[in-house]
Design a protein that fits this description.
Layout lengths: L6 E5 L4 H11 L6 E5 L5 E5 L7 E5 L6 H17 L4 E6 L18 H12 L3 E5 L14 E4 L2 H11 L4 E5 L5 H11 L3 E8 L6 E7 L6 E9 L3 H12 L4 E9 L5 H6 L5 E5 L13 E4 L2 H13 L9
Parallel strand pairs: 1-4, 4-5, 5-6, 6-7, 8-9, 8-11, 11-12, 12-13, 13-14
Antiparallel strand pairs: 2-3, 9-10
Helix pairs in contact: 1-8, 2-3, 4-5
Length: 315
């Protein structure tokens, strides 16, 4: 018997398409909810179904506008708790503010910790997320956190392409461990692009490529693509180092500012991302491939609801 009664899934306005795809995977209807803003910019939430003692999952990535998405989720959590839900799990495929996970300058906040505190105080009993910017963000919570990874999904896609002499390239030191895992799964070598970020203006200074990449096909890996600056700097450094082609893999397609235009005008062969964030119209590009995380999230929700191991999904 499951530890809680009926499974219910609701969503806000951040990414309803993903929530519906998760429900399709599980074979259940999406819960009915009303989530909107009044004319005074206040957010209103009403869960329009009985959820007493139910196992409630709220699917809400922190998509643009980020602060609205966070506030919607907090209010949905409060609504669920006050409706006597048995357990409330915040399903956050993309955890924004993840890059603000430490004090790396004087007089700056640790916003990733602040958001974690807000979710706990709001009443979340559990968090389900995908590829955090830094794994230690899990430690900001005093409730269970299940962090899924899209690495097997990306690996299967790359394997099917049968690339010529591939090499996995970490676009910075911080993602080296994940890149090493990808290289091991593919059975290919690893290289690293060393970079230095300058200031708070999203610009980076690429330094050099560590590893043998001459004549090979690069598969770059990063957790998110924001403005595309890091990716294009890495691609330029790889081309100077003698790489043949560059494929880019990333979990979260933030694609802010001129990202898509930069990708279109670059020498990148293909950019492979997932739908943890809602695909934008301008992402419909010949160079961008979007893989769905709905089966991954659906299976994790099924396992959490029924008391099965989530970690066993990746063994």
């Amino acid at each position: 018997m499951p530890p809680f009664e009926e499974l219910k899934i609701f969503t806000g306005n951040a990414h309803p398409q993903l929530a519906m795809a998760v429900c399709d995977y599980l074979g259940i209807p999406l819960g009915k909810a009303s989530v909107f803003k009044f004319s005074n910019d206040n957010t209103f939430v009403q869960l329009q179904e009985n959820i007493r003692e139910c196992d409630v999952f709220l699917v809400q990535p922190f998509a643009y506008p980020v602060n609205d998405s966070i506030m919607e989720l907090l209010i949905m959590i409060d609504a669920a708790k006050r409706a006597s839900a048995g357990r409330v799990t915040a399903v956050i495929p993309y955890y924004a503010y993840g890059r603000t996970d430490k004090k790396d300058q004087p007089r700056v906040p640790i916003t990733a910790r602040l958001v974690a505190d807000l979710l706990e105080v709001g009443g979340a009993n559990r968090v389900l997320t995908v590829d955090l910017h830094a794994g230690q963000i899990q430690g900001f919570f005093n409730i269970p956190v299940d962090e899924l990874t899209v690495l097997p999904l990306l690996v299967r896609y790359i394997q099917d392409k049968a690339l010529d002499e591939p090499v996995v390239v970490a676009v910075d030191i911080g993602i080296t461990k994940r890149a090493r895992d990808m290289a091991a799964r593919l059975g290919v070598p690893l290289a690293i692009v060393e970079k230095r970020r300058t200031g708070n203006n999203d610009k980076t200074e690429t330094l050099n490529v560590i590893g043998d990449v001459v004549g090979k096909t690069a598969i770059t890996l990063d957790d998110e693509i924001d403005t595309g600056g890091t990716l294009l700097n890495a691609a330029a450094a790889l081309q100077e180092a003698g790489i043949k082609e560059v494929y880019a893999c990333s979990t979260h397609a933030v694609f802010s500012g001129p990202a898509v235009e930069r990708i279109e005008g670059s020498a990148l062969r293909e950019v492979i991302v997932t739908d943890t964030l809602p695909p934008k119209d301008k992402m419909r590009s010949g160079k961008v491939t979007v893989l769905s995380v709905a089966p991954l999230l659906g299976e994790a929700i099924h396992r959490i609801h029924n008391g099965f191991s989530v970690g066993a999904m990746f063994q």
